[in-house]
Amino acid sequence: MNRVVITGLGTVSPVGLSTQSYWAALTAGRSGFAAPTIFDAERLNTRVVAEVKGFVPADHFDARQIGFLDRVSQFAVVAAREAVAQSGLSFRDGLGERTAAIVGSGIGGQTTQDDNFKRIYAENAVRVHPLIIPRTMPNAPASQISMFFGIKGPTYAVSTACASATHSIGQAFHLVRAGAVTCAVAGGSEAQLTTGTVKAWEAMRILAPDTCRPFSRERKGMVLGEGAAILVLEPLDHAVARGAAILGEIVGFGMSADAGDLTAPDPDGMVRAMAAALADAGLVPDAIDHINAHGTGTTANDATETAALHKTFGAHAARLAISSTKSMVGHALGAAGALEAVAVVMALRDGVIPPTMNYLGPDPACDLDYVPNEARRQPIATALSNSFAFGGLNAVLAFRRFDG
pTM of the prediction? Predict the structure, then answer.
């Protein structure tokens, strides 16, 4: 069994188009929330989203490439470029055949789909673009990364709603740890901010009218976001042999299913996933210092996750430093777990815990330390990243600071 380390991070987010700018914004408590600009919001009630700002496709791709790439795949490829460049890996000389590309997306190419539905139903178009299907399919980000980088090993998408990216990274971790592949490029991408998709979310009545304030009193729901994050994973021995800079280590992965309600969270399912990650990592609950929580800002999710943390960690729950970075970048669905994994790796590396912003004070059902409103400088050795998805699908990653 290999020790699995992280040698590259790439990020496209509502608060920055690189990992460095993303992390700087998180530690400064800077929000990416604003009024929608990239889609027609005239018929919507939603007045705040977390868009990726300043992303110009022509800065990253030529015209022919753009024709094949929905926004969701553009984000994924740009994040992968940063991660692979930081890792220093080249996929020539056979390494491409021994590398996996596993990239989650909850709903795939929504921009392409929404635009073409408008053409068909509103404009009565007789023909549509011939590349709609390959642009919209949820595996497009993984496939495009494979093609852009010459990755010829296992390449696939995981689509488990809000847990997609965490499941993807966990699958990649297991493949590298078992020696089934030498390296993996893994994460998630989502570009869900379209008129039709936001209208569908409005119907669920869980979107916040103003801002996202996880675990806080007066929380009113989630803010929809978008973006991508990619991690490069490889065995410790492989990274050391080539002199790579090691950013952190993944030590465990846990999964569970609630087998209950389609949308209502279940604390027992969350507990089983966290316990499985701890067991896989060989860690006792008291060893965990920090948790990047699922923390959506909805009344039910935050109370349920808090109850699950109490049940998993007992008295130690009160000593955990818990962050919800969704309070700054919104909920990017299939990309959320990857964005949060990057935040955890950086928190372990730098000894800085990002805050839970917009916090107004404790809710009776949320009584733990949520690092409110200001980043905290605190050395941490181990952390969990939680993702709990619609459909009752739970995924948790365990990380450790790499000290050699």
Answer: 0.97
